[in-house]
Amino acid sequence: MKKAKKLTSANLIERSNRVLMNTYGRLPVAFIRGQGARLWDPEGKEYLDFFSGLAVGNLGHCHPKIVSAVRAQSGLLFHTSNIFYTEPPVRLAELLVKHSFADKVFFCNSGAEANEGAVKLARIYARNCRKDERVGVVTMENSFHGRTLGMISATGQEKVKVGFAPLLEGFRTARFNDLAGVAKAAEGWAGAVMLEPIQGEGGVIPATPEFMTGVRKLCDRLGMLLIFDEVQVGIGRTGEMFAYQHYGVEPDILTLAKAVGGGLPLGAVLATNEAAAAFTPGTHATTFGGNAVVTAAGEAVINAIGFEKILSNCRRQGKTLRSALEKFAARYPGIREIRGRGLILGMELADGEKGQQLVRQALSAGLILNLTHGNVVRFLPPLNITSAEVSRGLKLLEKCLAEVYGNQK
Q: What is the sign of the dihedral through the CA atoms of 349, 351, 352 and 358?
């Protein structure tokens, strides 16, 4: 009997390149195991994860309560379709309603699908409830809402649209944090405004309090629905369960994905009773959305965040991380700005190539970072990361900054 070939990073990368479509600019590393804020490659090298699978692993890798919930539910029931009632999605929806503005929840599989659902809900609400043909949606320049044809049409970044024309109609963009621009784009045309409280893929840019308050008032005045895309920043990432809670402004519709499933594919559309009433049987659906296993995982996520002091740890570690990054910015002129909230932080660099070099150097040193928007190093560590892990990550980052920029100031 032929002995199985030992799994190595090089072998796994070669096999992947042979059979998977080339849609990701993958970094040259493979992982086979994770625990908390750490990952290991096939050779046993340990990495400190300050990326969390792009804000998916808010509780780190293989959190014991999520693992336990998935194991227990997978031994009972996977999937029946949404033609029937099952308990896990009800339990998760009850928790989301309890912790948010919302009255009703629709479960799906991803952030793009959640945003598609939100736009559909806004359009049918305008026609069936408001009896109005103002069904356009104003989105923000620099925004990102997903990779479906509908959501690249909504996204305010031209680079994601190249090659995919003709795009869907019904979207206009306005400058982020520019209330007058939103009002001009919406007047007499729009039925909704959709925005991210913090633009993650756009370079970690927070909305200003004045903008958030102003958009809410504008939507109320013009009879529009307000949609918050919290796919990246929801479920504790900013130090509150939802980012909108920092602003004292509530949306009519909110979208979630990434962290809500704890690593399993789960998205959600949250809405008020008034908005949700526009969806009736046959208007919207999905085959796999909210099945028993993924919603059991989601329930474990919400319960863990609610009862394990995760949010206070996020705020505390975020403050520590931001303070250190600001000290690095004072030391290295190549760092333009530090911005964000909680444990979604961006370090804008003057030179995007330096950013790519920094991410590669950090990976070689065992620290996982991410570069977004060309020149913004994004920090997304798990919300339950420890002080010792933050300290270790900062020491590795400091070493890499010195290697990229030289010892300055």
A: negative
Q: Which two tokens stand for residue 213?
A: 């308050």
| Closest to 379 (Cα-Cα) out of 331, 311, 326 | 326
Q: How far is CA 230 from CA 32, 235, 270, in A?
A: 29, 8, 11
State how far the Cα of 396 lies from the Cα of 402, in Å rounded to an integer: 10
- The CA distances from residue 104 to 120, 194, 245, 275, 409, in Å, are 15, 19, 18, 9, 54
Identify the helix (H) or strand (E) that includes residue 48: strand 46-49
Question: Does residue 37 surpass a pLDDT of 60?
Answer: yes
For 354, list phi and psi in degrees, rounded to 5: -65, -35
Question: In this predicted structure, what is the pLDDT of residue 408?
Answer: 72
Token code pair at residue 93: 């929806």
DSSP secondary structure, 26-53, as one string: --S----EEEBTEEE-TT--EEEESSHH
Residues 6+ apart with CB under 8 A from 123: 135, 137, 170, 191, 192
pLDDT in tens, 152-210: 999 999 999 999 999 999 999 999 999 999 999 999 999 999 999 999 999 999 999 99
Alpha helices in 103-158 (DSSP H): 111-128, 149-154
Which of the residues are catalytic?
Answer: 144, 229, 258
Residue (of 28, 37, 26) closest to 61 by Cα position:
37
The pairing of strands 205-206 and 198-199 is antiparallel
As given in the structure block, the two tokens for residue 151 are 């959501």
CA separation for the pair 396, 381 (Å, rounded): 14
Domains in the chain: ranges and CATH: 15-49 (no CATH), 64-307 (3.40.640.10), 310-346+371-409 (3.90.1150.10)
What is the Cα–Cα distance from 200 to 55, expressed in whole angstroms? Answer: 10
Query: Which segments of 208-291 does DSSP mark as H helices, in order?
Result: 209-222, 273-276
Q: Token pair 């379709």 is at which residue?
A: 81
Dihedral, CA atoms, 307, 312, 317, 322, nearest 10 degrees?
140
Q: pTM for this structure?
A: 0.96
